[in-house]
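Note on ligand handling. Small-molecule inputs were canonicalized before submission; formal charges were left as drawn, and no protonation-state enumeration was performed. Where a ligand contained multiple stereocentres, the stereochemistry in the source SMILES was retained. For pyridoxal-5'-phosphate, this procedure yielded the string shown in the input block below.
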Amino acid sequence: MKVPHRLYLSEEQLPKAWYNLRADMPEQPDPLLNPATHQPAKLEELYPVFCEKLAKQEMDSTTRWFDIPEPVQEIYKMYRPSPLIRAYSLERALDTPAKIYYKFEGNNTSGSHKLNSAIAQAYYAREQGLRCLTTETGAGQWGTALSEACSYFDLALTVYMVKVSFQQKPYRKAVMQTFGADVIPSPSDTTEAGRRILAENPETGGSLGCAISEAVEKAVTSEGCRYVLGSVLNQVLLHQSVIGLECEAAFEMIGDYPDVIIGCAGGGSNLGGLIAPFMRDKILGKHDPRIIAVEPASCPSFTRGKYAYDFCDTGHVTPLARMYTLGSGFMPSANHAGGLRYHGMSPILSKLYHDGRMEAVSYEQTKVFEAAVYFAKKETILPAPESSHAIRAAIDEALRCKETGEAKTILFGLTGTGYFDMTAYTAFHDGTMKDYIPTDADLQKGFDGLPQM
Ligand SMILES: *Cc1c(COP(=O)(O)O)cnc(C)c1O
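Structure output:
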């Protein structure tokens, strides 16, 4: 049977529960710590910041399956299943014996996988009777996704948007405003944390870490309001498991199984979701796929970071998480993959990486954009710069297969589209795009700020 170009599941085949990989991990990621006491954070301590149901999901490492609430399934049906696409054209162009598949999550207005978790988080907030949410956004995909979800569930939303992205992508703001969100460039003078960061560094373009501090502060100082986060957290990886579960079902349909699974990693949510059922098979010894995280050379949390307890934000208001980190004070250069400019990494993926169950590579951005343009020309999709990290690694893997003659099955996550990233594409075409690689001394500054345990 020839595998069709696009593999769609039927509506009935859509996952009805999210899969919690922690339930099958032989060793758990280390617990979140209260930053004041350095003791494991208690569930109730999370309630002022997070919605209760989400806080419970965050702390739950034993429940294997969480039912996807009906109203969440209803919205998923508006844009899911996402297609699993066989990259026939790319394979031909590369003249590789490898079979390349990508799971395309860009088929919704947010232009990324982020909507999968935004809907869940807005739903639980609504269910708890909250009136408003706050969040941060880097490249803008998360802010857009959450704006969509909040307008659907009638919640007010304040988005702190990393200043460089705010300036690079004015239309992102317009989209969020269309869905009713209030968008503030961060750092701003609307919070203590923002004012402090501005006082120290007035010219800063901001970072996700700063924007998180501002959003958390705004949530805890506003009535009926909570903070939500678009990546890194266990709950977000849980919601994103729909990506992997759909892939698993589609591969079953065609009687194949990926040998190599590749995803870009910012905070780790798309990769964590994509690999969830495959990592389970690997842990249980049923299959042994290689799993590869791809990150920018300018923000190399996995490949050059330390596995340590650190704050999730620059303003040090969040619990401490043990993860691969560059230090919460690390300010990545203004590279064009806004969604990958985070200093830390999901504690779940950090643990798996630390235990040798997955690999990581980093690429400079010009190499990434070369791959993005090549892919666009062959597969007709204009990829997001973040996603293009995975494309680069997949192409390189396919080229290695060409050398060795191995017909491997490669699966990668195509997390989104790049329509709002044309400044970046233009810089690439003009030859003005630069590659920033932090020196060891640059990184040391970030490590020096790690909390003393
Ligand atoms: C946010 C984003 C990412 C990175 O976030 P993860 O949590 O690591 O998945 C990757 N691709 C796109 C398109 C994004 O919007």
